[in-house]
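Practice problem 4.
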C-alpha cells in the first residue's frame, strides 16, 4: 500500500489506516523515551493508529530487553497502538514501513578513530538501506538519528535508489530546540515567542547555530539581546557542545530531549510546520539556494507542507555565517569521501 503523504494524515479515512512505524535500536535509551510520544499520538497525530516494528540486535539479552519494552507497551493500553512486532531481523522490521526512525548505530568506543567509526556504520547503513530499498513502502520517510547521523543518512539513501532522496533526513532538531531554549533563557522570553533559529550543517561540533534570522516576539533576537559577544563566545559553543555537557553531567547521552526532538521532526515533516515558522532538518543538499555542495545531507532551515520539506530561501548570510557554513560543509565532504571510499563508490 502506498501512503499518500501529500494528504492530511490527520483527516478522514487516512486516520483509520494504521501507519507502520519502524524504530531501529529500539531497546536503547532514546527508544524508551520516544515510544510514549509515538503511541500517544503526539508524533503522528491524535487520531492516527500505529503499528510498531521494533528492531534491535539479534542478541539474546537485547531481544529479551526488547520483549520487556513490548510488555510495557501492552500494559500502557494506548488506544492508537494496534500491533507491536519485535525482531532482530532488519528485513522483517522494514517490511511495509511508512516511517523509519533509525536510532541503532555502532557507538564510538575509546581509542576509535573517526574512520573506524565510519567503517562500522557504513556496513550497518548500507545493509539497512538495501533492505529499505526492497521491502519498505516506496513513500517511506526515514529519519536517521544514530551517529554520525548526517553521513549515515547519506549512505542509507545511496543504498536505496528506489526511494526518493527527499524521503531521507537526519536529526538536527535537537540542536535547533537547544538553540531556541537557550535564546529564550537569555532573553527571559517564552520558548514559543522565539522563532527563526537555524542549525546549518552537520550534527557535530562543527554545526553552525545561527540566530541572525531569529526573532523574539516578532523583534530581531540580536537587537533584543544586544550582546554579540555572548552570541559568538557563549551561545554558539554551548549549542555545539551541549551533547558533551549532558554526557558529562548525566554519564549518559541525551535521551529525553532527543526523543522530544525526534517527535517534533516527524510531526512537522508529516503534518506540516505552522505558518510563518521554520525548523532545521538535515536533508539532501542538491540544488540548495545557499551554495552548499550538492549531494550532502546538510542541515538547513525548512518549512514542511503536504509531507514535503522545502528549504527556506533568501535568508541573510553575512561573512561570519558563510565561514561557519563552509567549515561544517568541509567536515561533511570529508565524511562523505571517507565513507564512499569504504563503500567503493
Ligand atoms: P543506546 O546505546 O541506548 O541504544 C542504541 C541501541 O541500538 C542499542 O539497543 C543497540 O543494541 C542498538 N543497535 C546497535 N546497532 C544496531 C543495529 N545494527 N541494528 C539495530 N539496532 C542496533 O543509544 P541511544 O542513547 O538510544 O542513542 C542512539 C543513537 O542516537 C546513538 O548513535 C547516539 O549517538 C545518537 N544520538 C543522536 C542525536 C542527534 O541529534 N542526531 C542526539 C541523541 C543521540 O546522542
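Answer key:
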Amino acid at each position: 500500500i502506498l501512503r499518500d503523504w501529500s494528504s492530511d494524515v490527520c483527516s478522514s479515512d487516512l486516520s483509520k489506516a494504521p501507519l507502520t512505524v519502524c524504530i531501529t535500536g529500539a531497546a536503547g535509551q532514546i527508544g524508551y523515551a520516544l515510544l510514549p510520544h509515538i503511541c500517544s499520538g503526539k508524533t503522528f497525530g491524535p487520531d492516527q493508529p500505529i503499528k510498531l516494528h521494533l528492531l534491535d540486535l539479534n542478541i539474546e539479552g537485547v531481544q529479551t530487553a526488547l520483549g520487556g519494552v513490548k510488555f510495557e507497551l501492552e500494559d500502557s493500553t494506548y488506544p492508537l497502538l494496534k500491533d507491536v512486532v519485535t525482531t532482530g531481523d532488519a528485513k522483517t522490521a522494514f517490511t511495509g514501513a511508512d516511517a523509519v526512525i533509525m536510532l541503532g548505530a555502532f557507538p564510538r568506543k575509546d581509542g576509535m578513530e573517526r574512520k573506524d567509526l565510519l567503517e562500522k556504520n557504513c556496513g550497518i547503513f548500507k545493509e539497512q538501506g538495501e533492505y529499505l530499498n526492497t521491502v519498505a513502502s516506496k513513500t517511506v520517510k526515514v529519519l536517521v538519528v544514530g551517529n554520525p547521523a548526517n553521513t549515515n543518512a547519506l549512505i542509507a539513501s545511496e543504498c536505496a535508489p528506489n526511494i526518493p532522496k527527499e524521503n531521507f533526513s537526519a536529526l538536527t532538531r535537537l540542536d535547533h530546540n537547544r538553540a531556541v531554549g537557550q535564546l529564550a533563557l537569555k532573553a527571559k522570553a517564552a520558548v514559543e515567542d522565539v522563532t527563526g533559529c537555524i542549525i546549518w550543517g552537520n550534527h557535530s561540533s562543527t554545526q553552525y547555530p545561527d540566530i541572525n534570522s531569529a526573532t523574539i516576539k516578532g523583534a530581531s533576537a540580536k537587537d533584543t539581546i544586544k550582546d554579540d559577544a555572548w552570541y559568538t563566545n557563549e551561545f554558539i559553543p554551548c549549542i555545539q557542545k551541549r551533547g558533551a555537557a549532558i554526557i558529562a553531567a548525566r554519564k549518559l547521552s541525551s535521551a529525553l530531549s532527543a526523543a522530544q526532538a525526534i517527535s517534533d521532526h516527524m510531526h512537522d515533516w508529516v503534518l506540516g510546520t505552522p505558518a510563518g515558522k521554520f525548523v532545521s532538518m538535515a536533508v539532501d543538499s542538491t540544488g540548495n539556494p545557499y551554495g552548499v555542495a550538492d549531494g550532502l545531507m546538510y542541515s538547513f532551515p525548512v518549512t514542511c507542507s503536504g509531507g514535503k520539506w522545502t528549504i527556506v530561501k533568501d535568508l541573510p548570510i553575512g561573512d561570519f555565517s558563510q565561514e561557519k557554513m563552509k567549515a561544517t560543509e568541509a567536515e561533511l565532504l570529508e565524511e562523505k569521501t571517507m565513507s564512499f571510499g569504504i563503500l567503493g563508490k
